[in-house]
Write a structure and sequence with these properties.
The complex is a heterotrimer of chains A (124), B (363) and C (493). Chain B has 363 residues and is mainly α. Chain B is built from 19 helices and no strands. Chain C is α/β, with parallel strands linked by helices and 493 residues long. The two termini of chain C are 41 Å apart. Classes of the chains: A alpha/beta (124), B mainly alpha (363), C alpha/beta (493). Chains A and B meet through helix 1, helix 4 and helix 5 of A and helix 1, helix 2, helix 3 and helix 18 of B.
């Protein structure tokens, strides 16, 4: 049972991802824009964060970079889930502190596997 | 009738018109407030039902099929893999797809659009046989948005039999270039076979679009056909150069180097008269070839690239970048993860600026 | 004798009446064209089309160019907002046009800028040389160009064009807010018809009164001042509907400097923006038209009716007056500069319909309106005009204009529907009356002032007119919160 934060402005994606991750036995909380996501990160420790790129108020990389400066959150696994698919975007995503990068349209099953792997690394 | 009467009548007419206009906008607002609230809550509850349908297709019973369709379209377009297929087949089981097929000929264009979108996302091989004809027919719809949706749907279904209809619609400008390009790209990812034949299509836009699509798809075996388009008109030429850059095969490098030499041979002053290009076009075309050579990454292009250095600074900068890549780094230098490094690499690749350190190092 | 004068007066009034009717009818026609073209905007979801643009490798890349002069208050936010725009491949180029405040320092801190080698040659000639070029250490696609101030916005934009490395250039004001999908929407004509489209413009709306959170308009509302409310309607009528209508007629002549997208190579071919023009945005598009039609190129210019750019409009009469004088002045300048295009078949509808219309109704509009007003007053005071008849005449003319404003509101409400509240709609109706009964006359006077300035200085040559530029300190009185707006040189349609 892990606490996962999903930050995405698309209600369909939020619903889908929470549904699938909840099925896999996780606790999912949703934030609908970058700023709300950061607030949630400051308020609570998460086992993993799923982050969209193009969101209102703050972009994924901005959020990710800020997460890394919050005390106690430096090592939270962050997975980017975004439609930005260019090589250079992926570079920027990782440079901003993401641990993994999943491109939309995405496979929930693959995402689930990556989430499990990231969580396992964290525990280990 | 006096002039005053005329004014009087005009006054009454205008006043009535103002009142009618006010009433129309007030009425419009009332209607919208009602319908949008209803639709929003229907979507909210429908979303949950569509997700539950993953496990149980009966979850969709009793829901407004139009709402289910709308949610399904949005969700399916974000998904791939087994979950996508699973959701699609649940929708087929629930009869949503059959309903959408019937609606392809609905009187209201909005419904035709949504039906086409859904069919594109849900079709499996079995359905495809019938759908290709039904959707191709919609490429002649009166409504542009319906035609665009039909093209998108054909692209997603990914069956090569739809290529002639799409190409035809592109030729007659029934659908937009981007929609056609993306549709052919999606389709080609599944079934590229029928595409290369259209590199010789009579319409230049078709040749250009197909060339770029094949480049993106990495269909290396057609590189020579694409290289032959370098004799074509400027629009096709540009697409061909980009496509060759994408394909990254060394044996077309001599062809590109030749193009570069032709461009360099053009006297800058008389650029327009000798090659039909203005100075700006000459520069941007030269840069296009340089970028393609950089992407292919074959060092044999270096001598010609070096002779680009006495051109305008944009061209020279592009050539420098390319030479650096071909010379030292190779095309597939892995990302090191150092942000400072990203900055310089990115900037060097993205803008016409050279990091000061790198410039000094090179000099 | 008295009869003769009375006859002439009445004949003139008849002329003014006809003029008014033609003017307002032409507006109704434009509004109708725009309404029928945009009737599906609200019902039909364009997500799929935008998604195609977002994921397509064939989408052209864009450089967003933001000229900035003493914009310390806005600059970091607008840079971040521009980087945050939804688009597959765009870069942001900020031109610090010799700011004397901390514009650059704020950027440097916010983005951890590092200096790179300056661009040494220019595709577009500049007056104020480039001093240095900076990029963020994070690798984000931002370029900050510092240059010497040459007194014109055009020169700063030109520096941005030089630094731009993408296919298209998008001109944006530092204090404007773009919607997240602004680039995707305005690029759509380019990807739909890549062989012909050379420029597109997006709709500008008034930001005043709207609720903004972190650079995003989350709730569109009417402004709190009447001056700004009037402009909301004006912008709806002229920018949203008027320009959409013109675009449909194939004679779009202005793309606002606050948000326009051009093919970079065409801007370079034209030598960049004219830094001697007070209406450099109008001038640029006219230059594009002349350049391409001279060469017989098959091209198109399109206007995207979706609301894409929100901008702060003047809240005070004083600033509004300055702005409108300048618009009118710029309009006169540009029409004079391109006068050779009038009525020449080579210039198609721009020459045969667009330009004559602008001269007759935009340029000379204030002259005819004000002279008409003076004549009526004079006629009444000397008892030369039949009072009830004059009143009827006046009411018909004014009510017709009101009808045009109300019609714009109807189209906004039905096709676009950006304002949620009933209050905002009510305010709109009230404004439709006020605008035509009072504001209109003042506005005509300001436009006349601008026209006069243009006529007076045209002998002195074009160069001198713009030395004061929009960036002149005098225009930006420190305590006027909205003075920044006065710098936007733009011509109202």
């Amino acid at each position: 049972m892990s606490d996962i934060l999903v930050v995405d402005d698309d209600p369909d994606i939020c619903a889908l991802v929470s549904f699938k991750l909840e099925q896999a036995g996780h606790n999912v909380t949703v934030a609908h824009d970058g700023e709300a996501g950061l607030e949630a990160v400051r308020a609570q420790d998460w086992d993993l964060i799923l982050l969209d790129w193009m969101m209102p108020r703050k972009t994924g990389p901005e959020v990710s970079r800020e997460i890394r400066t919050i005390e106690g959150r430096e090592n939270v696994p962050v997975i980017m889930l975004t439609a930005k698919a260019q090589e250079s975007d992926i570079e920027i995503g990782f440079a901003a502190g993401a641990d993994d990068y999943v491109v939309k349209p995405f496979s929930p099953r693959e995402l689930s596997t990556r989430v499990t792997a990231a969580l396992a690394r964290r525990v280990g | 009738m006096t002039i005053a009467d005329g004014f009087g009548i005009a006054l009454v007419v205008v006043i009535v018109a103002v009142v009618v206009a006010v009433l129309v906008s007030v009425g419009g607002k009332v209607v919208r407030a009602r319908t949008s609230r209803r639709r929003e809550s229907a979507i909210e509850s429908g979303r949950r039902a569509v997700l539950l349908a993953f496990d149980d297709p009966r979850a969709l019973d009793g829901l407004d099929p139009e709402i289910v369709e709308a949610i399904a379209v949005r969700m399916l377009s974000q998904l791939r893999g087994s979950d996508r297929d699973e959701l699609a087949s649940r929708l087929v089981d629930a009869g949503v797809v059959a309903a959408a097929r019937a609606r392809l000929r609905d009187r209201r264009p909005g419904r035709r659009i949504q039906a086409a979108d859904l069919l594109g996302l849900c079709a499996d091989d079995e359905l495809a046989d019938d759908l290709i004809d039904e959707l191709s027919e919609r490429l002649d719809d009166r409504d542009l948005d319906v035609r665009q949706s039909a093209a998108r749907a054909l692209g997603r279904i990914g069956d090569g039999r739809a290529v002639p209809a799409l190409v035809q619609a592109l030729t007659t400008r029934q659908i937009s270039v981007n929609t056609a390009g993306v549709a052919l790209l999606r389709l080609g990812a599944e079934d590229p076979g029928p595409l290369p034949a259209h590199l010789r299509a009579p319409h230049a836009r078709v040749r250009a679009t197909v060339a770029e699509v094949l480049g993106e798809l990495g269909e290396v075996h057609v590189r020579h056909e694409i290289a032959d388009l370098l004799h074509d008109d400027p629009v096709v030429w540009r697409s061909a150069v980009r496509a060759l850059g994408q394909l990254q095969v060394n044996d077309v490098v001599p062809r590109l180097v030749l193009e570069l030499e032709i461009l360099l041979g053009v006297d800058e002053e008389e650029g327009r008269s000798s090659a039909g290009r203005s100075r700006v076009e000459l520069d941007s075309d030269t840069i296009l070839v340089i970028e393609a050579l950089r992407s292919i990454g074959d060092p044999s292009a270096i001598p010609t690239l070096e002779s680009c250095r006495d051109r305008s600074s944009r061209v020279a900068a592009a050539a420098d970048r390319a030479i650096r890549v071909l010379d030292r780094r190779g095309p597939d230098r892995p990302f090191t993860g150092d942000p400072q490094e990203t900055a310089t690499v990115e900037r060097a690749a993205g803008a016409d600026v050279v990091p000061i350190g790198a410039a000094k190092g090179a000099a | 004798m008295r009869d003769v004068v009375a006859f002439i007066l009445n004949a003139f009034n008849g002329f003014v009446l006809v003029y008014f009717i033609v003017l307002n009818t032409s507006y109704l026609v434009l509004i109708w064209l725009a309404a029928t073209m945009t009737k599906h905007r609200v019902q039909r979801d364009d997500t799929a089309a935008l998604e195609d643009i977002l994921t397509s490798p064939l989408t052209p890349s864009i450089s967003v160019i933001i000229p900035a002069w003493n914009e310390e208050a806005f600059i970091v936010d607008s840079a971040q907002a521009a980087l945050r725009l939804r688009y597959p491949d765009h870069e942001v180029v900020i031109v610090d046009d010799g700011s004397t405040d901390s514009t650059f320092e704020r950027l440097r801190t916010a983005f951890d800028l590092v200096e790179v080698a300056p661009i040494d040659d220019s595709d577009v000639p500049l007056r104020g040389p480039i001093q240095s070029v900076h990029v963020p250490a994070s690798g984000e696609r931002l370029t900050v160009v510092r240059k010497q101030n040459a007194g014109t916005r055009a020169d700063a934009v030109n520096a941005g064009v030089n630094a731009a490395s993408k296919d298209l250039v998008c001109f944006v004001d530092a204090d404007s807010l773009l919607e997240a999908d602004a680039l995707l929407r305005t690029v759509q004509p380019f990807v739909d018809d890549p062989d012909r489209i050379v420029a597109t413009g997006g709709v500008i709306r008034a930001l005043n009164g709207c609720e903004v959170i972190d650079g995003e308009v989350v709730d569109a509302r009417q402004p709190t001042t009447w001056v700004a409310r009037i402009q909301v309607i004006e912008y709806l009528r002229s920018f949203l509907l008027g320009r959409t209508g013109w675009s449909r007629l194939g004679a779009l002549m202005i793309i606002s400097g606050a948000f326009g997208l051009y093919r970079r190579d065409i801007v370079v071919e034209l030598g960049g923006l004219d830094d001697e023009s007070l209406g450099e945005d109008f001038d640029l598009l006219m230059g594009v038209h002349r350049h391409l039609m001279d060469r017989g190129v098959d091209y198109r210019v399109a206007y995207v009716p979706d609301p894409v750019c929100w901008t702060e409009v003047p809240n005070s009469v004083k600033v509004l007056r300055t702005q409108r004088k300048r618009w009118s002045h710029g309009l006169a300048q540009v029409l004079w500069k391109y006068r050779g295009m009038m009525f020449r078949p080579k210039y198609r509808r721009v020459g045969s319909v667009g330009m004559p219309y602008y001269v007759a109704f935009e340029l000379l509009g204030p002259v005819i309106e004000l002279v008409g007003l003076v004549v009526v007053i004079a006629g009444l005071s000397f008892g030369l005009i039949n009072v009830p008849l004059a009143l009827l005449f006046f009411s018909v003319a004014i009510l017709y204009s009101i009808l045009v404003s109300v019609a714009s509101l109807v189209v906004e409400e039905i096709n676009f529907h950006r304002y949620e509240r009933w209050r905002d709609l009510g305010t709109g109706f009230v404004v439709a009356f006020i605008e035509n009964l009072g504001f209109r006359q003042f506005h005509a006077f300001w436009r006349l002032e601008g026209l006069w300035a243009a006529v007076r200085r045209s002998d002195a040559g074009w160069g001198e007119m713009t030395r004061t530029g929009f960036q002149g300190v005098g225009d930006r009185g420190a305590d006027e919160e909205n003075d920044a707006v006065a710098k936007r040189v733009e011509v109202a349609t």
